[in-house]
């Protein structure tokens, strides 16, 4: 069964009992991230979860019952694994069945990637054992939360900047494939941090990836993201977003650029995207924020001239 959404076509392999499906695709650094929902006819239904690439699937919602991942259609999963929001890792071309019985629909996030890309993303953080062997219906709360946020990103009409989706993808895959946690979380050196921050500030109008930033300091994206947050207290995405909003505020106060030009100069897709993001971060639209700052500036000027008391401003 094939599902077409825009330019993307996704095929469910060897389907039985499936009625319809929806798919939304985003791609982060070569990893296909799909938010899928499939609907079934009454009775048993299944399809092959495998594909030409490795597959990681996170079940987000089950309506009307429970779904399972099975290597044998006639052999149910162990009872201790039959809990909501299970996760399965299926190596490329290894047949594993997504199975349901009298279930109305299943909603999931499915990631497809080459094995080599995990090494590129994680470097020495990768656990080769976890990345090389199938694991069906395991559970991890952090991975599920990241999957929910990525699903929302797939559905968004104005997706966030690339660092956000990449950061969520790293966090989800880290929860599933990373080795033992580091004994100490050291941050970037002063010179490394300065190099990265300068690059972000100099490229506010461009789409910057975690891979680009990590290459600047010769780290894997996973190591870089962890060390950057240790150094700054925020993720690369949050730092870039805060910096973009700060630059936008400077340009708004100068009153020399239109909103559309401010949006372009600070790396947003368009004026509408900029306005929504600005309000989400600051609590006000650019026009409201600028008006309030202008009014406050006038009041402070009058106060300095002795025409407005301090209590009148409170």
**How many strands appear in the DSSP assignment?**
12
Global structural class: alpha+beta
Overall, the morphology is globular
**What proportion strand?**
15-25%
For the record, the CATH architecture of the domain at 2-161 stands as Sandwich
Mean pLDDT: 87
If you consult CATH, what is the topology of the domain at 2-161? Jelly Rolls
Task: Summarize the structure in words.
42% of the residues lie in helices and 24% in strands. It has helices at residues 115-122, 128-132, 141-155, 162-177, 190-202, 210-216, 221-232, 236-254, 259-265, 271-282, 286-304, and strands spanning 2-5, 8-11, 13-16, 18-28, 31-40, 44-48, 54-63, 67-70, 87-90, 97-101, 105-113, 135-138. The protein is an alpha+beta fold and 314 residues long. The strands form three sheets. A six-stranded antiparallel β-sheet has the order 4-5-11-7-9-12. Strands 3-6-10-8 form a four-stranded antiparallel β-sheet, with no helix packed on it. The chain has a two-stranded antiparallel sheet with strand order 1-2. A hairpin with a 2-residue loop joins β1 and β2.
Question: Helices, strands, pairings?
Answer:
Layout: E1 2-5, E2 8-11, E3 13-16, E4 18-28, E5 31-40, E6 44-48, E7 54-63, E8 67-70, E9 87-90, E10 97-101, E11 105-113, H1 115-122, H2 128-132, E12 135-138, H3 141-155, H4 162-177, H5 190-202, H6 210-216, H7 221-232, H8 236-254, H9 259-265, H10 271-282, H11 286-304
Antiparallel strand pairs: 1-2, 3-6, 4-5, 5-11, 6-10, 7-9, 7-11, 8-10, 9-12
């Amino acid at each position: 069964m094939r599902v077409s959404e825009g330019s993307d076509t996704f095929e469910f392999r060897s389907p039985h009992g499936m009625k319809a499906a929806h798919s939304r695709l985003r791609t982060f650094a070569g990893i296909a991230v799909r938010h899928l929902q499939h609907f079934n006819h009454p009775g048993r239904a299944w399809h092959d979860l495998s594909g030409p690439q490795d597959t990681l699937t996170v079940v987000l919602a089950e309506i009307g019952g429970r779904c399972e991942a099975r290597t044998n259609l006639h052999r149910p999963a162990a009872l201790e694994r039959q809990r909501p929001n299970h996760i399965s890792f299926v190596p490329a071309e290894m047949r594993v069945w997504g199975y349901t019985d009298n279930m109305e629909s299943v909603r999931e996030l499915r990631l497809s990637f080459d094995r080599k890309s995990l090494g590129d993303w994680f470097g020495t953080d990768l656990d080769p054992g976890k990345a090389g062997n199938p694991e069906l219906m395991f559970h991890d709360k952090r991975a599920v939360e990241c999957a929910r946020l990525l699903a929302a990103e797939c559905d968004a009409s104005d997706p966030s900047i690339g660092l956000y989706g990449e950061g969520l993808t790293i966090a989800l895959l880290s929860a599933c494939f990373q080795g033992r946690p580091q004994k100490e979380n050291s941050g970037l050196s002063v010179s490394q941090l300065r190099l990265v921050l300068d690059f972000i500030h100099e490229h506010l109008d461009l789409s910057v990836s975690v891979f680009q930033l990590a290459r600047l300091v010769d780290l894997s994206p996973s190591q870089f993201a962890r060390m950057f947050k240790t150094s700054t207290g925020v993720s690369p995405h949050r730092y870039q977003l805060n910096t973009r909003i700060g630059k936008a505020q400077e340009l708004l106060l100068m009153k020399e650029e239109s909103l559309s030009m401010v949006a372009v100069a600070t790396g947003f897709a368009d004026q509408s995207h900029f306005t929504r993001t600005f309000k989400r971060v600051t609590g006000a639209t650019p026009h409201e924020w600028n008006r309030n700052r202008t009014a406050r500036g006038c009041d402070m000027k009058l106060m300095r001239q002795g025409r407005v008391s301090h209590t009148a401003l409170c």
